[in-house]
Records
---
Amino acid sequence: MSTSASSLGPAQPSLFDRAIAPAPKPAEKTARKPARRALAPTLPGFLQGDAARKPAKARSGRVKLMDLRQQWLLSARARVVFLLMAFAALALVALVQIAWLGMSGASPSSRPTATALVPDRGEITDRNGVPLARAYPAYSLYFYPKAMGSGADDPLVKSPEDVTKELLGIFPHMNKERTLRLLKSGKSGVLRRKILPEEANQVWSIGEPSVQTPRSPDRHYPQGKLAAHVLGRVLENDEGKKVGAFGMEQALEAQLSDPVARAQPAALSIDVRVQGALEDEMGRGMLASGAKGAAGIVLDVDTGEVLAMASLPDFDPNRISFEDKDNTGNRVSFLTGELGSTFKPLTVAAAIDSGVVRDLRKSWNAAPVTVAGKTYEDSDFKGASLNIPQALAYSSNTVTMRVARELGGERLRQVMIDLGMNRAPNIELQARGTPYWPSGKWSPQTTMTVGFGHALTVTPLHLANAYAAMVNGGIYRDATLLKVEPGQADPGRRVFKASTSHRMRQMLRMVAIYGTGKGANAPGFRVGGKTGTAEKLINGRYSQSKMLTTFASAFPMDRPRYVVVVTLDEPTFTEAMRGRTAAFNAAPIVGNLIRRAGPMLGVRPDNTRDVDISDLQNLMGKGE
Amino acid sequence: MTLTGSRLRQIGWSAMLGFCLAGFIVLSLTVHAVRNEVVLAEREIIELKQAKQRLETEFQARASQHQLAKWNRVDLGYKAPRADQYLDTRKDLAALGVPLAPDAPSPVRVARAETGENGEIAKLASRDMVSPVSGEKITLAAANAEEDAGAAFAEAFGDILIEASPIREARAQTVNASFPSESNE
C-alpha cells in the first residue's frame, strides 16, 4: 500500500510528509481524527516517532494551518481516486477473466467425439459385421487402500479375515491366501478381473470403501467359445500391455492396436451362423461317435475365404483361469495326420490331367498289391477289377495304387507340390502345421502309398485347399481368414485342367450317390465328396483301433461353391454310429451341416438340378 | 462546454466503436455458450453410443449362436427348409391359392352360427346368457330397457371382467420379465 501511494508523484504529499507534520491543536482534533484513524493502522511506527518531535514544530501561523488542511484534503481525495482505481482494476481483471472464460477456458480443450469412441483395441467382426471380439468395460475387483485416506492406519473397516470371508462368499473360486495377503499388505492391486454386475453390487454391499469395483477396458468375446481357435486370445505382456497371444488377435495385432486403424473393425471371412452350425454339428457328431477331437472347415472355392473353421474340444477365450489351455491347438491348420482315402480323388485327378487315365470305362485290376514286401488290399472287396468311378465310390486302395504307379512318382509329387502339400498352409494364423513330406525322389512304394493318402501327413486345411482347386475348375488359391471384397480374390494358379475338374465333380457326386459318401448326401444340395479312414500311426505302428476319419466334400456339384472338410479323431464304434469308418461318422456330420448351413450360404436346395452324370452312370454296375 | 461538430463526430464514432465492441463481446460470448452446449450434447451422444454398444454386446452374449442352438434343440425345434418348401415360379405361388376342389375338406372356420333348415339363422336370443365364472343367468335388458346399454353391460359384467382381465396377468409377466439378470445368473 505504501509503495503504490508514493508513486502518485511529487505534487501529492507523501504519506511520509504527513507523518512528520506538526501535532494538531486540541480544536483541530475533531477534523484530524478521521485522517489519523485512517493512517493509524498503516503507519503505527511513524506516528510513534512523531510524538517525540511534535513539540519542536507545534508553533505555526493560521496560513500554514490552511495549507495543511488543503494538503490533507488533497491527500484524502487522492486516496479516494486511488481506491476507485483499484476497484476499477479489479473489475477489469474480473471482466477479462469472464471474457477469457467465455472464449476458451470453460470449453473442453478438445472435441471428444473424434477419439472417445475409438476402442483401445480394434473390434473383430465376422463377414456380416457381427462382433466377435470387442473392447468392453468390464467390472474388476480392485483393492485401493488410499480410499480411506492416505494417513489411515487401517485401510479396512473390518478385519482382513472377515472381508476375505465375505468376498469368498461372492466368489467361491477366489484364491483365499492371495486375497488375504493383498488385503493385509496395504498395497493396491487387482483382486479379480471380469466380475459380473450382480457381483459388483454384492461387493458394494460389503461396505468396504477400499474394495472397489471400477470398470476398465477389457477384451470380450460375445459369442463365447464360438470360433475360439480363429480368434485366439489377448494376454498381458511383461509391460502390462494387452497383446494378441495367438489366433487372429495375434495376426492382426498391428491393425488392432494402431491408433488410427483400430477405429474401423477388422472383418474376418467367418460367418457366425455357419460357424455355429459347424461347431454344433461337429459337437454332436463327436458325442455320438465318442471321438476325442474333431476338426472342420468350410471354404469358399472361388475366393479361398474360410467361412467356418472349428476345432474341438474348444475353449472359452473369455475365461480368466484358462483351464482348458490344452485345447488351444488348432486341429484344422496345425495338427497334421494321414488323411487316407480322401487323397484318392487327387491321385485320379492327377492321372486324368496327365493323360494316364483317358478312358474311365477301362477296368483296373483290383487284386492285392505287394510292394516292398508289404501287401495292400481293399478293405471292402467289390470285384476282381473295377473301373475308375467304381474305385472311387468303393474306395479301392489297390486300383488307386496301380493308378499312382502308372502316373509315376515325379508327376504325383509335382501335383502335390502344386497343391501346397509340401509346406505349411499359407494362412494368417500362426498355428500352421508343417506336413511330413517324403524327401528326395519318391520310390514306387512312397508314390503308391501317397496315392491313397498315407506316408504324407497334412492338415485338414491342406485337404480343403486341394479339394477347392479340384472342383473350382482347377485353380489353386491359398485360404484366407480375411474377408475378400467382390472381385478382389487372389487370381491363384492353375493346377488342373478345367475338363479334369469337371470329371472330378461328376465322380465325387457319384461317390455321394452310390458309394461311401451316402451319409452326406443332403437332399437337394448336390453334395459330392470322398470318405477317408486312416489308422493312426502310434509309436511307428499303425493302430488297429485308433483312426482318423475324414469326409472331404464340395457342394453344389453342378457349380461348386463351398468345400466342407470334417475330420474326427479316434471315433469309436457306438450304437449311434454303427461303424467306425468315415462313412458312418464324418459323412453324416457333413450332411447335417450342409442341410443346415446351405441356405445360409446362399445355396438353395433344389431337387431338379444336379451335375450331369449320365455318361458315367452306367459304369456303376458291379465290378467284374 | 460547447460541442463542436468534430467533437460530436468524435463522440459518435467512439460510441459506434463502443457499441460494436459490446456487440462483438456479447456475440462471441453467445457463440461460445452455444459451442459449449454442442460439446455437452456431443458428450451425451458418446455416452449413449457407449451404452448402446454395451447393451448390444450383452444381447450378443445372451443370444450367442451356441445359446440359440441350445434353445432350438430343446424348445423351438426349427429345421432348415427342405427343397420342396421353396417355390420356383409365380405359378407355384399362385397354385397355393387355387379354388377348392369338389372333394376337398371344408375349410376350418373360426366362428359359426346355427342355421335352420331353410338356411335361416336360428334365434340367438333363445339361449340364455350365463356368467362364465359363476354360471348364473344374466339378463341383458338393454334391448327393451330405457337405461343405457353400456351401463347395463358394465353392471352385469363389470366385476367379472375386472377379475378375469387378461391384461393383469400379462402385465405381471412383463414386470417379472424385466428383471432377468437378477434371478437368472
---
Amino acid sequence: MQSSDQKPNQGDSRRDFLKKSSIITAIALTPTVAVKAAENQADERFAELFEKIPLHLTVNNKAYQTAVEPRVTLLDYLREELHLTGTKKGCDHGQCGACTVHIDGERVNSCLSLAVMNEGKKITTIEGLADGEELHPMQAAFIKHDGFQCGYCTPGQIMSAVACVNEGHTNSRAEISEYMSGNICRCGAYPNIVDAIVEVSKGGTKV
Amino acid sequence: MINFQYLRTLTSKSALSLISKDKNAKFLAGGTNLIDLMKRGVTAPEKLIDINHVPLKQIEAIGDKIMIGALASNTAVAEHALVKDKLPLLAMALNAGASAQLRNVATVGGNMMQRTRCGYFYDTEMPCNKRQPGTGCGAIGGFNRMHAIFGTSDQCIAVHPSDMCIALVALDATVVLSSTKGERKVLFKDFHRLAGDTPQLDNNLKPDEMIVRLEIPTNNLHKNSYYLKVRDRASYAFALVSVGAALELSENKIKDVRLAMGGVAHKPWRLTAAENFLKGREATVENFEQAAKLAMIDAKGYGENDFKLQMAPNSIVEALTIAKSKA
C-alpha cells in the first residue's frame, strides 16, 4: 500500500488521483480489512480536496452560519439542513417551479442554485410569508379561490404569485398566465390561481 | 451530482487567470443550464469558478451602440428602458424564453453558452456525437421532431435553443471576449458554429476566454419588429420554429430588414437571401411569401421534423406581417 500512502501530486486532478489509488487498491493482494482501511484513508484525502465551503445567509429573517459541500443546491440545503420542507422538490431540473423561493426579493428556482452561490443573500421561503398566525394576503386568496387541489405545487405557486404582483406583471389575466408559466400545476388549478392573483393585485395590499 | 471544487472570484482578471491555468474548470454564472447538465451527468467539471460577483452587469448606451455586460440577467436586459425602447426585438425574444424564475438568474453570457436540448444529448445512455464524439447521432433516424432543417451534418442535427441569440444575430451584435492575452471581438453571427465534423463545439469561444459584453448597434428597425415563437404550449417551451423580424419602412417600401430563425439550425440562423430580396421592395404578403420561399431553398427534413418545412416559411410570413402592422 506504499503508493496509496503518498499525498496526491499537486498536478493531479482528483479523478487521476482516484483512478490511481483505486487501481492500486484493486490489485493489492492484501486482506480485506487492510484494503478497506486504505480506501478510508483515500476518502479522507478526497474530502480534504473538496472541503465544505463556509456560507452565511439569511433565511426568513434568521441568520445562518454554516458550511456546505459545493454540490448542495439551495433547495436541498433548505429542506435537508434547515428542515424547511415547505419548499418542494418537484422535477429538480427547473421545469416545474415547485421549488420557487425569493432570493433578495426575486423569484428563483432553488433547485438550480447552488447553496454556496448565495453567500450573504436574503432568502424567503413559503414559511416566511405569514406574519405569525396571520396569513399573507396571497395565501388567504389561494384558500378563498380554491387555488389548489393536491397542494404540492402550491408553495411554489404562492412564492411566484407574490413576485408576479411585486413585478407588476398583473395587468391582464393573459399577462398573469404568461408570467406564472414557470409554475406547473398538474391538478390544473390555473384559473383559480389567476383569480387569487387578480384579487391580490387589485386589493392594493402590500404583498 | 459529482462533487467539484468551488472557487469564487471578484474580478475579471482573477477569473481569467484561474481559467487559463485549469482546462478542467468551467465558469459558473446563473447556473440554470450548467447545474442541470451536471445533475444529469452530461457534464462533470472538476472545478467551478463562480463569476457572479465580477462587475459585468452594465447596460448602457455609448455612442450609437448599446453595451450589455455578460453577467446582466435576462430579466435585467428585457426590462431595461434602453432595450425596450431601442431594441424591442431583443426584449421580446428574451421574454419568450424560459420562465420568470429562470430569467431572473440566467445571464446574457450563459444564455449564449447554453447547450442544445436534444434528448439524445441529455440521455447519457444514448449515442450522441456532441456529448461523446464518435458514438453516433441518435436523432438521425430517431426521434427528431425538435431538430434542425438547415446546416445539418451527418454527425449532428441538434438545434441551438436560445431565443435571445436569434434577436442578437438579427441585430448585428458583436461579442467581446477576453483572455489573459487581451480582448477580441467576434461578430455574433460568427460566435456559434455549425455542427460539421465537430458537433462537440457549439461556438468559437476558446477554453481560456470569457464573454465580457455585447455591443449592439442601434438602428431604425425598432418600430416594426416582432419575435414570433411557435411552440407546443403557449408559454415556457422551446421553439419548434421562431422568427425574429424587423423592418424599416418608408411608406410601404422596405428600406431595411432583418430576419433570423430559431429552432431550425445548430446556430442562430440569419436569413440573408430573404433579406436581400426584400430590400427596396414593397411590404406586401406576396413579397413576404417570395422571401420565405428563398429562405427555405436549402432546407432538409429528417422525418419527424418534416412539418418544419412548412411551418418555417409560414412563420416568416406571419412574423413579417405582424412586424409591418405595428404602428
